[in-house]
Amino acid sequence: MKASRLPISLCHANCPKCGLPTEFKMFESGAGGDFSTFVGATTGAIYRLDLGKVHYQKISEASLLADAQKKEGSLSRMPEEITCKICGTVFSASSIPIDGEEVIEAYEL
Predict the structure, then answer these.
(1) Nearest CA among 35, 45, 23 for reference residue 98
(2) What is the pLDDT of residues 48-77, one digit of tens each?
(3) Rounded to 5 degrees, what are φ and ψ at 6?
(4) What are the distances in angstroms from CA 44 to CA 18, 30, 47, 60, 93?
């Protein structure tokens, strides 16, 4: 697990309970899915999981996430586990508008 400066998309989705938008960051993937995005519960650090390692090198997702989970306690997968910043509801987004992009410090798995 190494930290790198990586481009990430700034996204938002509306909470199904309160209807207000919640912002989150997510690595974009192509049609086959290149990356998964996880956010650490303890530090809020962002982790980029290379799905090429899972699909082509046959490394299990659990083993790639093990060090991050040990450090964080738990990880939230974006956009499947977004926590509304207003009411606290955890929801999955199917429509994800992208508001921009920035370069952040993230961990590559």
Answers:
(1) 23
(2) 999 989 888 999 999 999 999 999 999 999
(3) -135, 145
(4) 23, 25, 10, 23, 19
